[in-house]
Amino acid sequence: MFTPPPSPLPSKSSKLPELEMTNDTPTRANPSASPAHSYQSKQKYTLTLRWTIILVPIILIAIAVSTRFLIHPTAFHAFSPTSTQGWTKSLVDWSLHERHEPTGNILHLPRTSPSPFIKRSTPSATPAPTVPLNPTLPTPFPQPYDTTLSSNFSTTSCYNFFLNMTQTDPLRSCRPFSLLLTHSQAFIEVQDDINATNTEIWGTCNTAISQSQCDLNMAWFASSLRSSCATDLSDQNLLAVNALIGLQAFDLMRDAACSVDPVANAYCYIEAVASSDASSYYFYQLPLGLTVPKVTSGACNSCTKSLMSMYSVALGSANATSLTGLQATYGDAATKLDSVCGSSYAQSTTVASSSAPPSVKLTSVGGVWAALLAVGVLSTSMSS
Fold first, then answer.
1. 171 CA to centre of own chain
2. At what angle do helices 250-257 and 194-205 cross, to 10 degrees?
């Protein structure tokens, strides 16, 4: 009987065939891969957070330093065409500087100049025109500060405030008589034409924006001016001081300009402009801090009496403390008027005690930009 040989033993070097994994075969996560990935992510986050903590304060400090420099007069002086020293020398010289002298055709209003002169039209031989009915207004309508602004400011923030304010619709649409009367060349020049002046007064009394909204607009501008021009107000810069007085007297002076003589059906202000006697005219400038030079019997009329009564009520109101111009001029004007017209024309009054008007909180543009930049840096770092 034949016996088959034994089967050969498997070679020691041979290996079992590896199983090929398919999509249907569940895979096991590599236990060593997860800790490594977690460690790398944590290390990256820590590094990013560390750089954020370092960079954000540096950026904020840089912004603060640059903002401080830009509002310093040295920044103006360094690049001024009239600077007598090089700009590199100016930038490192932070000593007190002299105020720039105006150049060429730039309108200059020195701080020590007298109160601005209010032009009055040539006395008219005809009676004042009556209040017009929907007249055609001039285009463009006269605006305050329509001449070149002086660069004679203590800070760039105040200069920029005036540039921005004079170009904004909230100011221009309100046609503020309190600013037009002394700071609009076009408004002053047109007073040689009593009919054109009559139309413009109608325009100041009839604005697309309501008077109450204009009151809020002027209050905002006044608050912003106190913030942006704090140094100029402290230095008694007349342009800043007179603008603040005019903004605060907006409501009162609009009422004064729009008062109508019921007998003649004409604006009282237009009657004062057209009168051959200038006495009545000067009473409209009292809220601006401008005194009445002389009072004659020509001021003894119902319009002047009504105007002084309006002023007296205003000085007794809660807003009296903001009417600094009228506070300084009313008493003298009342005395002069009473001495000529009788004691019934103007009554003595005392300024009502009231707290200062609420200030509008203004956020620094540089501060907002810095905060947004810091948040942006942090957000970018966290997402990367």
1. 10
2. 130
DSSP symbol at 144: T
The 8-class DSSP code of residue 190 comes to G
Are 121 and 194 in contact, with CB atoms under 8 Å apart? yes
Q: Are 48 and 381 in contact (CB under 8 A)?
A: yes
Amino acid at 374: A
- Helix count and strand count (H, E) for the chain: 17, 2
**Of residues 32 and 342, more confidently modeled:** 342
Helices 365-383 and 33-70 cross at an angle (nearest 10°) of 170
Q: Helix 238-248 to helix 324-341 angle, to the nearest 10 degrees?
A: 70
Q: Do residues 217 and 188 touch, judged by C-beta distance below 8 A?
A: no
Q: Where are the alpha helices (DSSP H) in 249-323?
A: 250-257, 268-274, 279-282, 302-315
**pTM (two decimals):** 0.62
Residue 259 DSSP code: -
Identify which of 374, 383, 371, 370 has the alpha carbon closest to the alpha carbon of residue 54: 374
Looking up tokens 């800043």 gives 240
Q: How far is Cα 216 from Cα 231, in angstroms, rounded to an integer? A: 24
3-state SS track over 73-115: HHHHHHCCCCCCCCHHHHHHCCCCCCCCCCCCCCCCCCCCCCC
Averaged pLDDT, 275-296: 93
Using DSSP, state whether 241 is helix, strand or coil: helix
Tell me how far apart the alpha carbons of residues 244 and 226 are, in angstroms, rounded to a whole number: 8
288: nearest Cα among 320, 318, 244, 332? 244
C-beta separation of 158 from 241 below 8 A: no
- Judge whether 181 and 187 are in contact, CB under 8 Å: yes
Give the DSSP letter of residue 373: H
Beta strands in the chain (DSSP E): 260-261, 266-267
Q: Output phi, psi for 28, to 5 deg.
A: -100, 135
- Condensed to tens digits (0 to 9), the pLDDT of residues 57-81 reads 787 777 665 554 444 444 444 444 4
Nearest one of 263, 257, 294, 269 to 279, comparing CA atoms: 294
Cα 360 to Cα 57: distance, rounded to the nearest angstrom: 29
